[in-house]
Design a protein that fits this description.
117 residues, 1 helix, binds zinc ion, mainly beta, SH3 type barrels, 2 domains
Length: 117
């Protein structure tokens, strides 16, 4: 029981960014960019569509046919992004709320809008 409580607390401290969220980068080189979360990684990093692109030079190979420059998203730490609220159109902090049917949902702390999750 105590262990369970601890686990819940730890989860609560985590960021609430999920796949398919629209997020804005709030710090660093990519500040101000907006994109969709493609993937949430285990080390609290996220891959955001068209954000933090890195160029990789690839050699021509007999398998892929041609070489060249490939652009690929590099992971960005979740603390560098904030979820964009669809209603107030701002990067916001999220809260949690229990809905009538007992399911937990994420809400915008600014306008109270429930985000789909
Ligand atoms: Zn909002």
């Amino acid at each position: 029981m105590i262990l369970l409580t601890k686990k819940v607390l730890m989860m609560h401290r985590r960021f609430h960014v999920k796949r398919d969220d629209r997020v804005m980068v709030i710090t660093g080189r990519e500040k101000g960019k907006v994109g969709k979360v493609l993937k949430v990684l285990k080390n609290d990093s996220v891959i955001v569509e068209k954000v933090n692109l890195i160029k990789r030079h690839t050699r021509p190979s007999p398998y892929t046919g041609k070489g060249g420059i490939l652009e690929k998203e590099a992971p960005i730490h979740v603390s560098n992004v904030m979820v964009l609220c669809n209603k107030c159109m701002n990067p916001v902090r999220l809260g949690k709320r229990f809905l009538g049917d007992g399911t937990k949902s994420r809400v915008c702390k600014r306008c109270g809008e429930v985000l789909e999750s």
